[in-house]
Specification:
The chain is mainly alpha-helical. Helices cover 75% and strands 4% of the residues. The chain has two domains: 1-87, no CATH class; 94-201. It is built from eight helices and two strands. A two-stranded antiparallel ribbon has the order 1-2. A hairpin with a 2-residue loop joins β1 and β2. The longest helix has 28 residues, at 135-162. The two termini are 25 Å apart. Belongs to the YciB family.
Length: 201
Amino acid sequence: MTETRKINPWLKAGLEFGPLILFFVVFMRLRDKTLTIAGTEYSGFIVATLVFIPVLVASTLALWRLTGKLAPMQIATLVLVVVFGGLSVWLNDPKFFKMKPTIIYLIFAALLGFSLIRRRNWLELVMSEALPMRAEGWRILTIRMVLLFLGLAIANEIVWRSMSETAWVNFKTFGLPAIMVAFFIANSKLFERYAQPRDGE
């Protein structure tokens, strides 16, 4: 089993969120422009996606190299970004990249729901080292996360289908991370109630 190595938390945050921030910056600078590349016209959104894909690949590989480990969500995100972002660039159609959050949230809702049915909590397997809790706490948190992911999938579909590209980029860059942070803050009482002492405490 590969040992997880500790790295500077600021470096870790930069590698995890840097590509998304870069996507936001490039899009905001080019959103009203059309660029011609190899004889084909591309919107600012497509160009931002084209920049985002290799930067995310490089940052994810750097994170893996430095820490020796990647979370399942990081791997799934990378694969879906390459596939759906690549389709958007190749077909010059932004809708594929906009659908990516919907698909990844549905995948994780399905996996967590399936783990509950199988009575083998995958969320606990992934996060128990960082967040020790009793089994009942993990069951409750998993149910809530299934509902969260379903809600985020629906929200993403509503935003990209009914609002402007700028609204969707703002939602993806700031809204989705803020919702995730708020979710874990809102569940702080659950963590306290079902907490288990860490090793050595």
